[in-house]
Amino acid sequence: MSSFQAPRGTFDVLPADCERRALLEAHAQRILGAAGYGRIETPAFEPTELFARGVGEATDIVRKEMYTFDDGGGRSLTLRPEGTAPVCRAYLEHGMHRLAQPVKLWYLSSFFRAEAPQKGRYRQFWQVGAEAIGSDEPATDAELILLLADLLESLGIRGTRLRLSSLGTPATRADYRQELIAFLRAHEDGLSPEVVARIDLNPMRAFDAGDRRTRETMRDAPLLLHRLAPEDAEHFAAVRELLDGAGLRYELDPTLVRGLDYYTRTVFEFTSDALGAQSGVGGGGRYDGLVQQLGGDPTPAAGWAAGVERMLLAAGELPVAPAVVDLFVAVAVAGDGGRREDRTRVTGTAFELANRARRAGLSAQMELAGRSLKGQLRQADRIGAGWVAIIDGPMQVTLKNMGSGEQSQLEPAAAIAEILRGGRL
Ligand code: AMP
């Protein structure tokens, strides 16, 4: 074992995992691409200020979960903890407000949060996200939610539940915040010390508390959903009607709290019973104030992000096709001494044959370990090669069909033609 290990809360993505991820990526590309979302990739780090301003100073993410460093020139940079603020930054930087709105973007990228690691919660993790910037139509919210539902369904994710709510506008929220703070102050005896300590910083979090006493107290707390301004209530009703019309089931959850400050109006979260404590698969909502907060014109927008690892955990088995190996190119002189020049010449022929096969669209692997011929045939069998080509000389190949055991001596070009004629096994 090496003296090094992947840092706590991080993991290696090994080839088999990569295949499952590639399948997830293909589903995301198909579903989001077909709906007109263009893929975007932003840098892994951004100015710290982007997240402080975008995500919110009071959030856990900004207060204690960011990997922040000095770039050597006195500027503070942060490994991206989320994707929405960077996408909005890119929207403004590239003048995308001049394009037809909404601008629909999606991403699959890695994110970094210094959280306490556990199953489904890592310090480097991947998210698929979708953002539609420049429309306040309820149809945008509904489409985004339906697209995430489609993605989860395409992956066969079991036991999903969708929770839905509305946070109204910042003005409503500010009034409500005062009302909630007053309620919490009046009921401090019934709240956990942790909640009391954060009343002014983030009172909404009180709804999220795990302890029974706080939960009981919070049953009588005023709800933001009951305080929505008429336009917001109307917007929310329209989103709900569209989801009802599409036959998507959801639960209203007036206490739904998201860990990012930029949300306005619609918020939602998908959870899966197939996951343990970290049951959130993906979520998002509307963030009508964010683009302006980052220096742009007032621009309504909505989006979501879903965790790749959580989706894969909840998806269980995915039908990953085993890798096909059409051809294994063996060399008769490898490993058993012989003159170096002879070996080099025969190996050169092997290279040529493998290249020719690959150019013809076949998958071809070469002997690289200096095994005996017997060992090479065993290796070909182990990897499930359909054919083995043994290089006997510069222009001669013994081609063996691993299915039937038949073999014949051919020139390299004829060997490739024979494999193509025989089809892939
Ligand atoms: P958020 O950006 O916090 O709204 O999270 C959206 C989704 O990303 C969650 O529902 C999770 O699936 C996933 N996620 C968030 N944080 C982590 C993490 N630390 N490790 C793994 N997945 C995460």
**Envelope shape:** elongated
- The mean pLDDT is 93
The structure class reads alpha+beta
The helix-strand sequence is HEEHHEEHEEHEHHHHEEEHEHEHEHEEEH
Tally of discrete structural domains: 2
* Share of residues in strands: 15-25%
For the record, the CATH class of the largest domain is Alpha Beta
**Biggest β-sheet description:** 8 strands, mixed
CATH homologous superfamily identity of the largest domain: Bira Bifunctional Protein, Domain 2
> How many DSSP-defined strands?
16
Oligomeric status: single chain
Give the ligands present.
Answer: adenosine monophosphate
SS element count, helices: 14
* Sequence of strands across the biggest β-sheet: 1-5-6-11-10-9-7-8
Q: Which fold does the CATH topology of the largest domain refer to?
A: BirA Bifunctional Protein, domain 2
Q: What's the CATH architecture name of the largest domain?
A: 2-Layer Sandwich
How much helicity do the residues have? 25-40%
The low-confidence runs, each spanning 5 or more residues with pLDDT under 50, are: none
Radius of gyration: 29 Å
Structural write-up:
By secondary structure, the protein is an alpha+beta fold. The chain folds into 2 domains: 15-168 and 228-315, BirA Bifunctional Protein, domain 2 (2-Layer Sandwich); 325-420, Anticodon-binding domain (Rossmann fold), CATH 3.40.50.800. The protein contains 14 helices and 16 strands. It has helices at 15-34, 48-55, 60-64, 84-93, 138-154, 170-186, 193-197, 212-218, 230-245, 290-293, 308-315, 340-359, 373-382, 412-422, and strands spanning 38-39, 45-47, 68-70, 76-79, 103-112, 124-133, 160-166, 251-252, 264-272, 280-286, 301-307, 327-331, 364-366, 387-393, 396-401, 407-410. The protein has an 8-stranded mixed beta sheet with strand order 1-5-6-11-10-9-7-8, with helices on both faces. Strands 13-12-14-15-16 form a 5-stranded mixed beta sheet, with helices on both faces. A hairpin with a 5-residue loop joins strand 3 and strand 4 (76-79). Helix 5 packs parallel to helix 9 (230-245). The model has no long low-confidence stretch (mean pLDDT 93). Adenosine monophosphate is lined by residues 82, 113, 115, 120-122, 125, 127, 258-259, 280-283, 305-307, 309-310.
